[in-house]
Automatic annotation (TrEMBL):
The keyword Transmembrane applies. PROSITE patterns: NA_SOLUT_SYMP_3. PANTHER family: SODIUM_GLUCOSE COTRANSPORTER 4, SOLUTE CARRIER FAMILY 5. InterPro entries: Na/Glc_symporter_sf, Na/solute_symporter. Belongs to the sodium:solute symporter (SSF) (TC 2.A.21) family. It comes from Pseudotamlana haliotis. Pfam families: SSF. This is Sodium/solute symporter. Its main location: membrane. Keywords: Membrane, Transmembrane, Transmembrane helix.
Length: 542
């Protein structure tokens, strides 16, 4: 057992890197006599099959913030953090049935484009600028920071060099090939991601059991730390403010999930690139099933690390390597990188490739969506209203590169954040309620007006900040703040819409019908199975 990489670990990791770059560049090549256009670059020529959509959704979603941050939260507060994953499965089904039919019918490239069709160009521009800022300064920067932290912990490489290396790796194929390169390499990335994650879970549980296997290890973890296996925390729990009991199921987490899975460009973009609506819905269903498995590879290792660190006998058996980078209550995010140190030669390379796959696939997705929003909603709107195909694609590549450079500069400044997953959720939660309110009413309430939506979106920020800093105990859990902010913002939009239109429908209101939301028997059966599995999981870990 060694702390560093062995020759075969490097071989495995280099083989992974060559495979991803090779596939990415191969699918990116221009067909003879065909100039890549906006649909090719930003929507993969609308040719993605369901299995590519489902795996790409997971690859875009699962990043360092899950592997590192969610394992850290598993170490600190236990299985309750899995609510983000398991409730996401149900959210994906809702998005597939009720949101996608509208988005695909309107032939969208970007989520801000929907805002323009439903409301106005002004609101579209406001939200496009907001998303660009969020993707660059929060999403891209945090993924780079957490990926850099993992490489620094595992390999001893200076964080700045690690961040630059990850950025260049993601840029090498995603900026050139666009969404097609991102989506097809994601299929491979998910294989590494799941395989490497399962290897780490096996190692952690097998170590806890003293070599007696995974089942024995899980039993010992459950016995040693029963407090870590409650999905619904009570008010006496130190982590109640992060996951406020039953309100996780019926309150603010729905705001985070519906915003993220329904109105987030780098997630929804691959569903817009489907061959058809049914193909897109099948992809969504695959992603929902995969979401049920994710806690096994990102949360359970964190809980196992907690048991290992607090068991003197296990720590003694780990030797000197066990004393390196030990996670603690104050540095819970070290849990996953710490576990990787104990993997045998070769498998350490597989697990590290999984972590790199999670980071790089998310970076590539965020870069592609950032460049899509800038090109389609800013450049084509205000700079060049009639660009050639070549100019459109080149602007997409250049804007993605600029965004990446800014994120590389910002990433090291995020040092010192613990439980980064919770941190990202909390601060994204200041802005997501207003956007969710605008979209939900814009989609499903025909009376919503443009002016009401603009004022609602603007008002949501001071409301969220007021709830965050007011010394009122009921507002202390930030999920409560998200839920209340959403309801207040919706109330403002409804009141202003009534005052403006005197109860009449807005001219741009969307006409809905039962036929629009009709789904196939396969989608319905799959959705029912997901709901049954979720019910069993919550009953088991309540």
């Amino acid at each position: 057992m060694t702390a560093g990489f062995d020759f075969w670990d490097y071989v495995v990791f280099i083989a992974y890197a060559i495979l991803i770059l090779g596939v990415g560049l191969w699918v990116s090549r221009d067909k003879k006599g065909h100039q890549k256009n906006a649909e090719d670059y930003f929507l993969a020529s609308k040719s993605l099959p369901w299995w590519a959509i489902g795996t790409s959704l997971i690859a875009a979603n699962i990043s360092a913030e899950q592997f590192i941050g969610m394992s850290g939260s598993g170490f600190a507060l236990g299985i309750a953090i899995a609510s983000y994953e398991w409730m996401a499965a149900l959210t994906l089904i809702i998005v597939g049935k009720y949101f996608l039919p509208i988005f695909i019918e309107k032939g969208l490239y970007t989520i801000p484009e929907f805002v323009e069709k439903r409301f106005s160009t002004n609101l579209k521009t406001i939200l496009a600028i907001f998303w660009l800022g969020l993707y660059i300064f929060v999403n891209l920067a945090s993924v780079l920071y957490l990926g850099g932290l993992a490489i620094e912990t595992i390999m001893g490489v200076d964080m700045m060099y690690a961040i630059i290396g990850l950025a260049l790796f993601a840029a090498a194929y995603s900026l050139y090939g666009g969404l097609s390169a991102v989506a097809w390499t994601d299929v491979i990335q998910v294989v590494f991601l799941v395989l490497g994650g399962l290897v780490t879970t096996y190692l952690a549980l097998n170590t806890v059991s003293g070599g007696e296997g995974v089942i024995a290890g899980f039993s010992k973890v459950w016995e040693a730390a029963p407090e870590k296996f409650h999905m619904i925390l009570d008010e006496t729990n130190d982590n109640y403010n992060n996951l406020p009991g039953i309100w996780v199921l019926v309150g603010g987490l729905w705001v985070a999930n519906l915003y993220y899975w329904g109105f987030n460009q780098y997630i929804i973009q691959r569903t817009l690139a489907a061959k058809s609506l049914k193909e897109s819905q099948k992809g969504i269903l695959l992603a929902a099933f995969l979401k049920l498995v994710i806690p096994l590879i990102v949360v359970i290792p964190g809980i196992a690390a907690y048991v290992m660190v607090n068991d003197p006998e296990i720590m003694a058996n780990l030797g000197e390597v066990g004393m390196l980078n030990v996670p603690s209550a104050a540095q819970a995010d070290k849990a996953y990188p710490w576990l990787l140190q104990f993997l045998p030669v070769g498998l350490k390379g597989v697990a590290f490739a999984a972590l790199a796959a999670a980071v790089v696939s998310s970076l590539a997705s965020m870069l592609n969506s950032t460049s899509t929003i800038f090109t389609m909603d800013i450049y084509k709107q205000y700079i060049n209203t009639n660009p050639t195909d070549k100019a459109t694609v080149n602007v997409g590549r250049i804007s993605g590169a600029v965004a990446l450079i800014i994120a590389v500069i910002v990433a090291p400044l995020l040092g010192g954040i613990d439980q980064a997953f919770q941190f990202i959720q909390e601060y994204t939660g200041i802005v997501s309620p207003g956007i969710l309110a605008v979209f939900m009413l814009g989609l499903f309430w025909k009376k919503t007006t443009n002016n009401a939506a603009i004022w609602g979106a603007i008002a949501s920020i001071p409301i969220a900040l007021a709830l965050k800093f007011l010394p009122i105990p009921i507002f202390e859990p930030w999920m409560h703040q998200m839920g209340i902010t959403t309801l207040l913002t919706m109330a403002i939009i409804v009141i202003l819409s009534h005052l403006q239109n005197k109860g009449a429908d807005d001219p741009k209101g969307i006409t809905l019908s039962k036929e629009l939301f009709k789904t196939s028997p396969g989608f319905n059966i799959g959705s029912f199975v997901v709901c049954i599995i979720l019910t069993v999981l919550y009953a088991l870990f309540w």
